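SAMPLE LOG
Freezer: B-3
Tube label: C17
Construct: single chain, 148 aa
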Amino acid sequence: MPSKRERDRIVRIIDANANRLREGLRVVEEIARLVLNDAQLTNRLKVKRHAVEDLVGQLTLSKETLLSARESEDDVGLERVFDRTSRKNCEDILWANIRRAQESCRVLEEFSKLLDENIPVSLKKIRFSLYTLEKEIHTELKKWNETR
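STRUCTURE (predicted):
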């Protein structure tokens, strides 16, 4: 069992990555919904997003606990500069956000191991399903681009 201080840091990591994962999935969901007009892909992404919310809740971390661990203003990564000019189309946005979601899922998988032995298994399944969804959405987006 981690010390209180270590647990607080773990909770901060979980909060940040759960947010990042949901945000990335939401962007990809909007591509499936509003660009591809694909109800099935949209629903699958929505289900994944809600599953992440449920899994974080199963870590017995209340919203208050997550919020109290949040230190957005003091985040040393806040000032990092990213080259977003390379995102010129929906495919670039898809790539960036699905990768963001996959990476965040991996971080959650690792750190949730310190709090619960079952949650990481579910997160791993979500992560691998995101690899499959990435391929499917990319294929559909290429078809969409060819018809424009």
